[in-house]
């Protein structure tokens, strides 16, 4: 408040009145003070005294999207534990670059909480720096960011399990369907899964082929669009590693639109342990989402109680679950079947 007053050339009392919307300050002066307060990331809160003692009883959970199984399952697991600890959860959905940019610009206003949990949130470098303005503990669930306490699956091991499974089945031309939120962001799971994909192929003496790695914006059509691009190659892959189970299920749907099926024409493996993986017969790498959520919530409860976090870094080992969507390499190639439809037929 003293910094705002100095910049505005007024008293601290004037700043206080202006930010609390009480009489005694002219409108031009009030507007100038609010502008300077925003520039300096200053937020006045009637709960400031309780905030200084970390006693708001609230936790902010920031999630890219709520309508995606991984995020909703993680959120539900965290909320259940925190509710049992008599803590309220404030949910902030920041879907895409515009919403995320707005959230980080207004980030100081989120100080009215005891802790902030980021669920696998991709961030830009400047957004990452604004996290320091919070003044409360940041915990990352389902990923890793700087040196913040975090819980995640070993995403490098995820890719190694998936791709080595396909290699063991005899596949040598293996594609990958990636996804992204916004180009330029750091998404630790994508970085590690991509690294594991290339490393597994290299260990089998297979060099990188950029054509076999396709990237689609995150959405319900990502899998179908990705598999359509891969199968349109002059020499298509015989197997595909998808970033998530939802993308893998979309890829299976894309196969059906072409009159093809897994694993006869293309083996498909996903990641997550989604409840729909079993009825779709999808081979998947389970990452223990519920377990990750419980670990993250435990970190939060320690922070709120003023206790040290016993394990600030928790990395879970993934588990491969083999189902009918993957099978041995066959002589018949996916390219040999004439398409029964394109991407439009899968929607």
TrEMBL record:
Record domain HTH lacI-type: where: 1-53
UniProt-listed PROSITE patterns: HTH_LACI_1 (PS00356), HTH_LACI_2 (PS50932)
The protein, known as: LacI family transcriptional regulator
Organism classification: Bacteria, Bacillati, Actinomycetota, Actinomycetes, Propionibacteriales
Region described as Disordered: 326-347
Keyword terms: DNA-binding, Transcription, Transcription regulation
One annotated GO molecular function: DNA-binding transcription factor activity
InterPro entries the record matches: HTH_LacI, LacI/GalR-like_sensor, Lambda_DNA-bd_dom_sf, Peripla_BP_I
């Amino acid at each position: 408040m003293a910094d705002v007053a100095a910049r505005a050339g007024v008293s601290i009392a004037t700043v206080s009145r202006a930010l609390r919307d009480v009489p005694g300050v002219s409108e031009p002066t009030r507007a100038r003070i609010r502008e300077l307060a925003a520039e300096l990331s200053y937020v006045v809160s009637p709960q400031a005294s309780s905030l200084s003692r970390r006693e708001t009883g609230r936790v902010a959970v920031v999630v890219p999207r709520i309508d995606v199984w991984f995020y909703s399952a993680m959120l539900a697991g965290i909320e259940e534990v925190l509710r049992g600890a008599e803590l309220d959860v404030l949910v902030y959905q920041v879907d895409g670059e515009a919403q995320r940019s707005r959230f980080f610009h207004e980030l100081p206003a989120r100080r009215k909480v005891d802790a902030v949990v980021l669920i696998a949130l991709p961030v830009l470098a400047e957004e990452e720096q604004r996290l320091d303005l919070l003044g409360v503990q940041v915990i990352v669930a389902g990923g890793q960011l700087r040196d913040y306490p975090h819980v995640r699956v070993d995403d490098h091991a995820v890719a190694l399990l998936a791709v080595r499974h396909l290699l063991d089945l005899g596949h040598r031309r293996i594609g990958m369907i990636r996804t992204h939120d916004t180009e330029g962001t750091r998404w630790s799971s994508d970085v590690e899964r991509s690294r594991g994909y290339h490393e597994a192929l290299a260990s089998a003496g297979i060099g990188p082929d950029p054509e076999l790695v396709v990237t689609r914006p995150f959405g319900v059509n990502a899998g179908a669009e990705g598999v359509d691009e891969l199968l349109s190659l002059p020499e298509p892959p015989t197997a595909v590693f998808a970033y998530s189970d939802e993308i893998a299920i979309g890829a299976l749907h894309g196969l059906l639109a072409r009159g093809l099926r897994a694993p006869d024409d293309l083996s498909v493996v996903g990641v997550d342990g989604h409840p729909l993986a079993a009825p779709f017969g999808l081979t998947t790498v389970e990452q223990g989402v519920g377990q990750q959520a419980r670990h993250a919530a435990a970190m939060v409860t320690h922070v709120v109680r003023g206790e040290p976090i016993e394990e600030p870094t928790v990395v879970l080992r993934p588990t491969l679950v083999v189902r009918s969507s993957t099978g041995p390499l066959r002589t018949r190639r996916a390219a040999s079947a004439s398409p029964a439809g394109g991407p439009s037929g899968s929607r």
